[in-house]
Amino acid sequence: MDAKVTDHIWNVQSLADRFLLRAAARPFVTEECLNLYLSPHLDDALFSCAGLIYAQRHAGERVGVLTLCAGLPSPGSLSPLAREYESAWGGLGAGMAARRAEDAALLSSWGVESWECETQDAIYRADKGVPYYETRASLFRKPHPQDAASLLPFWQTRFRQLAEEEAHGLLLYAPLGVGGHVDHELARGLGERMGEGGWRVWFYEDYPYVELEAGGVRAAQARFGIHTWTSRIMPIDVRAKIDAVRAYHTQMGRVFGSEKDLARRVKGFTAETACALNPWERVRRRLAPSGLRLRLWRRVLGYHGHAERIWTWS
Predict the structure, then answer these.
(1) What is the structure's pLDDT at 8?
(2) Is residue 104 part of a domain?
(3) What are the mean pLDDT values of the chain's consecutive 10-residue runs (314 residues total)?
(4) What does pTM read for this prediction?
(5) 197, 156 in Cβ contact below 8 A?
(6) Which residues contact 184 (CB under 8 A, 6 or more apart)?
(7) Is residue 78 in a domain?
(8) Rounded to 10 degrees, what is the CA torsion of 55, 57, 62, 64?
(9) Contacts of 145 (CB under 8 A, 6+ apart)
């Protein structure tokens, strides 16, 4: 059964980008409260929410990222799947170290606090030498029962330890699990548990999966069961988001192909999201939704707004 969905739009219009950024962040928390993002991997929080994170930092709010699958691979031979990914990240045996370094550099430069769990990426996890996930297709099926049974309690304990250190409280952001990657699905499960336990949770749309899977948001929401979903759509500084995504050099070729394609895709997707806020983008979508018309529109008239969207349930 489809979840019920309603949109709550922040229709913020201003000539000052600074005001837009502050307006995007202000309603969430006090400056002392921590905005904590659960990131399945060492890029997901920024790929999905860099615009919102930038706005929150711009407004003087505290932001932190808890990366769940940041552990280095165990010594020894890698599975063929792990070798494939490591080769794309820049070299066998050094891929995760490179990813950790680029993530730490970006978060530090933005003044974002960070914590890492030593859980390995799904491509490395195994039971007695037998990988849980041996093919790329298996990464997008239901998590292995034994894998889920061990990880979720461990992550839940780590989250509670971190939360206990926050005297001023925290607001949690978790992935919706769009695309169905096992690590995203497990992180979604953690966010769901926390929400059911009384924590304040917003769920973000997993980029780039949300861009590639039509109907992915509704499909992800359906995995939560029957809820009424409410969205918030915030204007963002798309230049900051592009710069953030570009900082993850290990992901450039495999995910985007080139920096030019990265910028085009991020601008295009966030402009589509901004149709709920920006009347000119709504006109554009009506007159030039795709294909040659869209390319000509962007070439002549450019972009009129950019936004990100997050969700909560009731």
Answers:
(1) 39
(2) yes
(3) 42 42 54 93 97 96 97 86 88 82 97 96 93 96 95 96 91 97 97 95 97 95 93 97 96 91 97 96 97 97 97 92
(4) 0.90
(5) no
(6) 40, 44, 175, 177, 178, 206, 209
(7) yes
(8) 80
(9) none
CATH of the domain at 20: 3.40.50.10320
Tokens representing 147 are 């894998």
Query: Strand, helix or coil at 6?
Result: strand
Q: Is 177 left (phi over 0), alpha (psi -120 to 50) or beta?
A: left
Residue 268 inside a domain? The answer is no
126 half-sphere exposure, CB direction, 13 A CA radius: 18
State residue 262's pLDDT score.
96
- Whose tokens are 């003087």? That residue is 60
In a domain, 39, yes or no: yes
Overall number of domains in the chain? 1
Domain range holding 147?
A: 4-256+308-313
45, 51 Cβ separation under 8 angstroms: no
